[in-house]
Amino acid sequence: MRPPFLYPLFALPLSINGVGEKYAKLLQNLGIFKIVDLLWHLPYAVNNRRRLHSLREFKSGEINTLAVTVVDHIAPKSRKQPYVVLAQDTEQHELAIVFFKVYPESIKKNFPIGATKIVSGKAEFFNGRWQMSHPDFAVDIENSWQIPETEPVYGLTAGITNKFICRLMYHALKAVPEMPEWLEPNFQKTHQLPDFRTALEQVHHPSSASVLAPESPAHTRLAYDELLANQLALALVREKVKKQAGRKIAGNGLLRRQIIDKLPFKLTSAQEKVLKEIFADQSSENRMLRLLQGDVGSGKTIVALLTMLNAVECGAQAAIMAPTEILAKQHFDTIAPMLENIGLKAALLTGRVKGKARTQLLQELKNGKINILIGTHALFVEDVTFKDLACVIIDEQHRFGVHQRLNLSDKGNRADVLVMTATPIPRTLILTAFGDMDYSKIDQLPEGRKPVDTRVMPLTKIDEIIPALSRKIEAGERIYWVCPLVEESEKLDLAAAENRFEILQKTFGNLVGLVHGKMKDKEKDQIMERFKQGEIKLLVATTVIEVGVNVPEATVMIIEHAERFGLAQLHQLRGRVKRGFKPATCILLYGYPLGETSRARLDIMRKTEDGFLIAEEDLRLRGGGEILGTRQSGTEQFCLAQMPEHQNLLYTAHKDAAMIVTQDPNLLTQRGQALRNLLYLFERDDAVKTYLAG
Description:
Elements (H helix, E strand, L loop, with lengths): L20 H8 L6 H6 L4 E4 L14 E12 L8 E6 L5 E6 L4 H7 L5 E11 L2 E5 L3 E4 L9 E4 L8 H13 L10 H6 L5 H9 L12 H27 L10 H9 L6 H15 L5 E6 L5 H13 L4 E5 L3 H17 L4 E4 L5 H13 L4 E4 L13 E7 L6 H7 L7 E6 L5 H7 L4 E5 L10 E6 L3 H13 L3 E5 L7 H19 L3 E4 L5 H13 L4 E4 L12 E6 L7 H9 L9 E6 L5 H12 L3 H12 L24 H17 L6 H12 L3 H8 L2
Parallel strand pairs: 4-6, 9-14, 9-15, 10-12, 10-13, 11-12, 13-14, 16-21, 17-19, 17-20, 18-19, 20-21
Antiparallel strand pairs: 1-8, 2-3, 2-5, 3-4, 5-6, 5-7
């Protein structure tokens, strides 16, 4: 479906003369698989190779370019010494050109005595004279054109040189065809943006470092193109979902009323607002695909239950899927008794349900005797058949990309989908990763919840903390102790946790438990269960303590080496002690030296508990990237756009895409046809196929 004039951009680097299998493989380490990937590999700096007049203008440690005359060769006396070519400028100042890899014949041939050469490379002032080791360029005067005045500097990998990338880029830019303009004319004019091809030429042949800045017209143009492709693709998919025939789910409210009347608390106005949005979706003719974001303890579970009951009131079934067995069981323990009270049945299906029990459960599900099924991804294996599934809730599951979300409700009869998360997600990420979904937010905690007293302390104060914990345990409270995150090493994470566990055992004996990622799920669940029941009072853990685990008696959270955690992760961990109504404490212990970003991060944690504000700050401090704690496959990674620098462009692209889909949903106008090229260029073929091809 891709138009033929774009084919050259999707050719392999092997199609460029001089690129063999070896180099093609090395380029893949830079994310370069096709010619178009080369174009998205932007330089990060500019080398200035403008020619100087004399050695007096040289700057130490920088690239300097100068014409010099060769006056002598000094061959090394031993293998450890370098080969030195002595040269002079027009004022007879001396430059030593040094070679540590010695090929005497080649050096003599390239630097004959009396010849004038233009040399360019990093220079240092050493032992009373200027020295240049292995110049990047050394050409005869008549070939001075071979040295670019400004040279882009690219990110490299072992075996790939900057010169090599520059050569490939020359071929890649030649492959870029003339294309009709897809930008809205007024937007392009107001921001003085060049056309697409010119923008690429400018960033890959920068006249100065300012061209590479995120706010330069060329970089702005390319970033906007990428963001518009992202937003338009999501808008098209979203439009397709909206056009998918759903089913009208509008219960009589009787079951919901029975549950609400029995609750020991009143729904918050934020919960009521969100339920109104969800019920409106369910009662429309189209399918619901909505993201519900709510801070830890804001009451998402009750919203999920009432959403599912709306379907049950219509004689249909509902399902809720959690990422882990322990969370699925927690949902079951909360929901099952409430349903039983009103004469309904919930069942739990995880990988652990086997044999006769599983066969019976599946039979009851197929016959419609189970109203609500709760489980892990085991819900979506082939032999699980519902009588009539009308509503699917996915809890804490960022790992689903757009197309998985579209397929999730296929088990149902055009089932509605609600995705819930307690992870604070910045607005930019909601637009780029979840832009195909409608969005609701519970931005209010239940009355009576007290703020967590967050303290930031150095690790050296650990000995003062332990006596205070004894008092908490005596008062019947429970404590989490989270051990440091060690980048890329579960073994070290585990060692840190085991070490802390042994130290705390000396004081608290078998009141201390340990959970870590290497344990089997069953083992982990048993320890967590004992902690919930109060047999274990102090739980030492690596970061595996699950999102959403509900232990209202836990009132203290201690995080060792808090500076190693992302803000979103720290916020999630602190949320573990916000589930009860007793005052809670979170102690963030840091090690020295503390960098500027880490200090700012801990400071934000101390000042606020607003998950949404924390998410925006996390984005600002980390510059995007791994905002959900670890890199998630469902989130967008951009090549040209940078967050938060291009945040406003994203909002503009979002509005622009919405306008395009409203006015020209099949992209048939002149601009629409040009936008199809944009989608193909940024490999959004799926959006073109799934939506435009019907």
